[in-house]
């Protein structure tokens, strides 16, 4: 029997954990898989090991593991696979298929634009945009954000689009925020490229409020668990399932 194990990042903030679990519960009816469980990589329970065990207890013989992360950085490439290897040693008879994370996608850029429109403030044609990522030492992260900026410029026709990171990559958020606030000729929009609320959002709010020009800086809501993500998630799960079936067919032929 087939199962999906959704691996969320995890957060110390209760609301962040609740949002992730609620979204997965709402998404389950859209996935044609009999067993579906959610877990967290860190900072919360159920852990990956607990989530995996719950799938097995319900009769799963193969598990598609979906890393519910925005980009394919360190967590998706190293941390989750490492933990899965350890857990799988307890259940060697279970077939495990690893899906891709959400990745760079046009629909996620659409969510960023929607977050701007929610402010109900006319967006000026010469507005400055600062897209803020979590950050990673993985070089692919910067490459991914370059593609995100290109998509954003194409969709909005805004030219002054910048990126920064909250950790592990440069430019760092505080420095880039101050630079743009200082040179600002019009609006400065700050767009968090984050799935959930948490300590990072609070630190961004504090940083913006400390600036003398804070009233001209618009901090938008984080991406959140938007319904558009459900469609991407379904595609990634289907891709992992199809790839495994193709590999099996090639092995048997």
Topology:
Blueprint: E1 2-8, H1 14-27, E2 35-40, H2 48-57, E3 62-67, H3 74-88, E4 95-98, H4 106-117, E5 128-133, H5 139-156, E6 161-165, H6 173-183, E7 188-193, H7 199-209, E8 217-219, H8 227-252
Parallel strand pairs: 1-2, 1-3, 3-4, 5-6, 5-7, 7-8
Helix pairs in contact: 4-5
Written overview of the protein:
The protein has eight helices and eight strands. By secondary structure, it is α/β, with parallel strands linked by helices. The protein has two domains: 128 residues, Rossmann fold; 114 residues, 3-Layer(aba) Sandwich (Rossmann fold), CATH 3.40.50.1400. The strands form two sheets. A four-stranded parallel beta sheet has the order 2-1-3-4, with helices on both faces. A four-stranded parallel beta sheet has the order 6-5-7-8, with helices on both faces. Helix 4 crosses helix 5. It starts with a strand and ends with a helix.
H-E order: EHEHEHEHEHEHEHEH
- Which stretches of 5+ consecutive residues score pLDDT under 50? 248-253
The total count of strands amounts to 8
What's the number of helices?
8
Main sheet summary: 4 strands, parallel
- Oligomeric category: single chain
N-to-C CA distance? 23 Å
Question: Descriptors for this entry?
Answer:
alpha/beta, 8 strands, disordered C terminus, metal-binding, 4-stranded parallel sheet, 2 domains, 8 helices, Rossmann fold, lyase, CbiX-like
Short characterization:
The protein is of the alpha/beta class. It folds into two domains: 2-103 and 227-252, Rossmann fold (3-Layer(aba) Sandwich); 106-219, Rossmann fold (3-Layer(aba) Sandwich). Helices cover 46% and strands 17% of the residues.
């Amino acid at each position: 029997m087939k199962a999906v194990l959704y691996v969320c990042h995890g957060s110390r903030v209760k609301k962040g954990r609740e949002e992730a679990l609620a979204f997965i519960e709402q998404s389950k009816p859209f996935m044609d898989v009999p067993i579906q469980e959610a877990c967290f990589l860190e900072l919360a329970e159920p852990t990956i090991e607990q989530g995996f065990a719950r799938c097995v207890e319900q009769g799963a013989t193969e598990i598609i593991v979906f890393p519910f992360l925005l980009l394919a950085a360190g967590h998706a490439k190293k941390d989750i696979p490492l933990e899965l290897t350890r857990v799988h040693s307890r259940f060697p008879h279970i077939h495990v298929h690893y899906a891709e994370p959400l990745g760079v996608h046009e629909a996620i850029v659409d969510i960023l634009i929607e977050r701007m429109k929610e402010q109900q403030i006319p967006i000026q044609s010469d507005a400055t945009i600062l897209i803020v990522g979590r950050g990673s030492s993985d070089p692919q992260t910067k490459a991914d954000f370059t593609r995100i900026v290109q998509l954003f410029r194409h969709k909005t026709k805004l030219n002054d689009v910048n990126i920064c990171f909250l950790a592990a990559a440069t430019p760092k958020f505080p420095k880039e925020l101050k630079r743009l606030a200082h040179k600002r000729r019009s609006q400065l929009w700050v767009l968090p490229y984050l799935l959930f609320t948490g300590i990072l959002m609070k630190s961004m709010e504090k940083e913006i409020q400390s600036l003398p020009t804070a009233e001209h800086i618009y901090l938008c809501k984080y991406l959140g668990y938007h319904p558009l993500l459900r469609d991407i998630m379904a595609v990634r799960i289907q891709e992992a399932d199809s790839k495994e079936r193709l590999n099996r067919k090639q092995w048997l032929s």
